[in-house]
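Standup notes
- DV: blocked on the single-chain target, sequence here:
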Amino acid sequence: MLETPNANPASLEKPSPFLSAETLNKLIESNTETRPWGSFTVLDEGPGYKIKRIVVLPKHRLSLQMHYHRSEHWIVVAGTAKVTCGDEERLITTNQSTYVPPCTKHRLENPGVIPLVIIEVQNGQYLGEDDIVRFSDDYARANGGQPAKA
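- DV (later): unblocked, structure below
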């Protein structure tokens, strides 16, 4: 520790490495987008990957869709997910996961009465929200080829 003759010990304290609750909430809100089915928050992203926290409201579902440029890995952290991947449908619960390859029709649905929370890890060369081809959508949103939101 460097000592100086007039140093005030309080001024030598290190700043806290932790964000205040208010700052953290603002950061989360700025990275969260709402959709008719719930919301998603981008937790981290870098070259070739993006990590999201997705919340699906009870009795809601995302569009039946596919992506040309990315795969997705979903891990359930709360609730129960009904997953459609290709021709297969199955239920996955807390601490279970599934993989969605590129160019595969898929859908995420919350058949339960509590919010479904998943962590989604996307991998691919292009991870934009407009890489979506919709085959069926409960909310009548645009199909692929136009900017569309999951």
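- Follow-up: Residues 145-149 have pLDDT under 50 and may be disordered.
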